[in-house]
Design a protein that fits this description.
The complex is a heterodimer of chains A (272) and B (193). With 272 residues, chain A is of the alpha+beta class. Helix content of chain A is 36%, strand content 14%. In chain A, 40% of the residues are buried. Classes of the chains: A alpha+beta (272), B alpha+beta (193).
Chain lengths: 272, 193
């Protein structure tokens, strides 16, 4: 558990009447205050067996509870740090720093500049009007250069399923990528590590269908460009990828990393 | 006119029959709600329908699990930010464990799928789905101490894969927990980015 999370918990305990030094250490005073507070919560708020949990799990459960107190959905109060808890922690921290809750980052469309293919805004009714219902109108794109599966780099693919309306644009882009970088550079930059394109699923961290449900988005190199990584961590934020992004953006595709500084693996034919 | 005269008693009889039937239904349903726990257990043996289940939130999925089961997250995600792609759920009596592996796209369920040296593969049956295949692996311990099942679903030409599993002592345990295992599987909700 890193210090900033413990510090937030100490701050929350102080707001509830404790007098802790906010030093980011999970010492006996912090633990005593934490357990005293958890003991005030009924079984409808936290499982009764919480007292047998580890220190870390108690701390996480406390952060989940405090987020919940503020109307933030931090997931089930179970003391496990999953993505929903991460969302709850980030929102709670933002609330304490700014005095207001953050905007829900997965649901706010902000269109960038060029859009020669007239890709629609990422709003479900507009996406349905343009692309049809989710999981329909699919076709196969034959790749100008071989891709490797990101989760099994020994397995190579020469094609994948995408939406028929994005097929031609995607093909042009990948041909230009090959022309510009060449195969060796593509491989060394991991531009051939394919995460996936089509999956009929809702978004993690949002309430609507993922653009992957229409097969109008592609993930590349997810391991080095994780969902919540920002430009300080994501490889695709580095200068050597500027042309890669320029080639996509010339066709109106949107990199969530470039536009919003998260989910750098993901590029989509929808504006936000 | 004659028709009206003859239909009045018949209608009274029908109303009387309806009232008797309704009373019987009310009486019968009242008896059911006051059934002994054993009787209630016979009608709903092991699905815990009346008890709220817990929710486990993985990196790219959520799944419900029975109250009292102990959660053990297993494979950390390599594409999300924190959280897990797989988890085990152990029953309080130690007789059964449920398992889920549901990554963002695909990965090998290395913590459950492989057949160990101390095990043997009993069967492997594949069925076609509209968008892929489902393969059911039945595995048993060589010493007969347990059995397990892994159900692997591969979709969209292999770009998506995930699986659920159950580890159990014997056929009786499997039967006892099958309702809860079905509910566990059906509750799975998967997410993308």
């Amino acid at each position: 558990m890193n210090k900033s999370k413990i510090r937030l918990a100490q701050n929350e305990l102080n707001l509830l009447g404790a007098s802790l030094t906010e030093d980011g250490g999970l010492g006996p005073l912090t633990m005593a205050a934490l357990e005293t507070h958890l003991a005030t919560r009924g079984p409808s708020q936290i499982p009764v067996e919480w007292f047998g949990w580890s220190k870390t799990r108690k701390l996480i459960a406390f952060i989940q509870l405090r987020a919940q107190d503020e109307g933030i959905d931090a997931g089930t109060i179970d003391g496990f740090w999953g993505p929903q808890t991460d969302f709850g922690y980030g929102s709670l921290r933002y609330l304490r720093e700014h005095g207001i809750l953050p905007p829900y980052w997965r649901d706010i469309p902000q269109p960038p500049a060029r859009n020669p293919n007239n890709w629609p805004d990422e709003e479900e009714t507009l996406l349905r009007a343009f692309y049809g219902p989710v999981a329909t109108h699919q076709t196969r794109i034959e790749l100008p250069y071989q891709h490797r599966l990101a989760w099994n780099k020994n397995q190579k693919i020469n094609s994948f399923i995408c939406h028929e309306k994005v097929h031609d644009s995607m093909k042009r882009i990948l041909e230009r990528v090959l022309d510009h970088y060449g195969l060796d550079r593509i491989r060394s930059l991991r531009l051939d590590l394919w995460g996936g394109c089509f999956a009929k699923r809702k978004k993690r961290g949002g309430t609507s269908w993922s653009t992957h449900a229409w097969a109008i988005a592609v993930d590349y190199d997810p391991e080095y460009n994780r969902l919540h990584w920002n430009r300080d961590q994501a490889h695709f934020a580095r200068p050597e990828y500027d042309t890669w992004w320029k080639l996509w953006e010339e066709e109106g595709w949107v990199s969530l990393g470039r536009a919003h500084n998260f989910d750098w693996m993901h590029i989509q034919a929808a504006r936000r | 006119m004659s028709h009206a005269q003859s239909s009045q008693p018949a209608r009274d009889i029908r109303i009387s029959r309806f009232l008797i039937a309704a009373a019987a239904v009310i009486l019968f349903s009242g008896c059911r709600t006051e059934a002994t726990p054993e009787q209630a257990g016979e009608s709903e043996p092991s699905t815990d329908e009346q008890v709220a289940w817990e929710v486990f939130s993985g990196a790219w999925f959520e799944i419900d699990y029975p109250p009292g089961f102990e959660v053990r997250p297993s494979l950390a995600t390599s594409t999300g930010s924190g959280g897990f792609d797989s988890a085990f759920f152990h029953s309080p009596d130690g007789k059964v464990s449920f398992y889920i592996c549901s990554p963002q796209w695909s990965r090998e369920a290395s913590d459950f799928r492989p057949v160990k040296d101390t095990e043997r593969l009993i069967s492997s049956e594949q069925q076609s789905l509209a968008d892929g295949t489902r393969t059911v692996f039945r595995i048993a311990a060589e010493d007969g101490s347990y059995e397990r099942i892994y159900e692997e679903t591969v979709q969209y030409e292999g770009s998506v894969s995930w699986g659920t599993g159950i580890h159990y002592l014997d056929a009786n345990t499997l039967e006892d927990y099958s309702g809860r295992y079905d509910r566990f599987k059906e509750s799975l909700e998967q997410f993308s980015d």
